[in-house]
Amino acid sequence: MAAEKPGRRPAGAREEELRAGLTPLGDDERPVALTVAIVVCALLAAGVIIGALTVSNLKSRGGSITAAVFIAGVLAVLARGMYLRRYWAVLGFEALLAFQVIVSSLALVVASTLLAAAVCLLTIGLGGWLFWKLIRVMGRIQAADMAAHGDGPG
């Protein structure tokens, strides 16, 4: 086993310091990023249903009411889970944000107008910002869960 270099911290020490510095979410506390994520998710769920109900010839365009209800249901469950400050819900929404950023990045490559490119850049920027802000929220949710169960500092 190789000896550690002088001045280096043991593996995991930095992560432990960062975790110890996180303030667990207070009772009914919802940071701005979490509130934004809840509203975005709920609006997307409503938009999917409204879009499915108002588009003529939905089936000929590759869609279906059943799929729209399923997608809207998943988004509604995520919004409710985030409102209840559940880690799994924030993680699920983060996965959707990551997918959205990737798809928008790919769409930017083939954007044929300045408006399309601007919309892609806007969605990449906003999605990336929200993704980044939700990482700390997830840590604070975990810190609150650990404190509630007596598993860690706090």
Describe the structure.
This protein is an all-alpha fold and 154 residues long. It has one domain (30-149). 71% of the residues lie in helices and 0% in strands. It contains 5 helices and no strands. It is globular and about 65 Å long.
How are the elements arranged and paired?
Blueprint: H1 13-21, H2 32-54, H3 65-83, H4 87-109, H5 114-149
Q: Over all CA atoms, what is the radius of gyration?
A: 20 Å
Overall pLDDT score: 88
Oligomeric grouping of the chains: single chain
* Helix count, DSSP H or I runs of 4 or more residues: 5
The general outline is globular
Could you tell me the number of beta strands? 0
Structural class: mainly alpha
Quickly describe the structure.
The protein is mostly helical. The chain has helices at residues 13-21, 32-54, 65-83, 87-109, 114-149.
Notable features of this structure?
mainly alpha; 154 residues
